[in-house]
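Input/output pair, single chain:
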Amino acid sequence: MNIAFDVDGVVLRSIEIILHHVNRAQGRNLTPEDLLTWDLEPLGLDEPTLREAVDHMYSQPKIEPYEDARQVLSRIYRMSGKPLLFITGRTRPETALKQLRALPWNPTVPEMIVTGGDRYKRDWLIETSADFIVEDDPEHLRSYLDMGIGVGLMVQPWNRNTDIPVTERFHGWKDLERWYLEVHGSPDRP
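Output:
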């Protein structure tokens, strides 16, 4: 199975960086729990503020990962023997690669392929021959499922109400790890 991982909202806590910047710029106190979708426009935020917040997030040398993300990704890398595949919606995927490499990997940084550039990841899923994606943005999940791509939804505040019948729902990286070991077999099993 060729698994692709989204970056922001799945591996990196990017939304916290964006909201912190928005809160400082507009005197607000928004948290991820306030989000009902990945789109921030419904919160009454203007385009220049959003663009500035996203650019600020892109410029960060490092963004904290979600709990257990690094450990589980390292295990998947060791078990699969293949580079980790990340497909990001960022218009500048190289910023995601820089931030992923900056994580405290142990013992070494795994090989990574980072591609993307648009929220609709269809072309990159086809190009990379991915047959499963771990995603937090429900915008195009139905389309991926219609293509025959398995979808693992990393449950976050902004997608908690989605009723799209995804392949798997993950309530954190330990859930994803359990699923991966069930699908691929534990290396500890004979």
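The two ends are 20 Å apart (CA to CA). Helices lie at 14-26, 47-59, 69-80, 93-101, 122-127, 141-146, 173-184.
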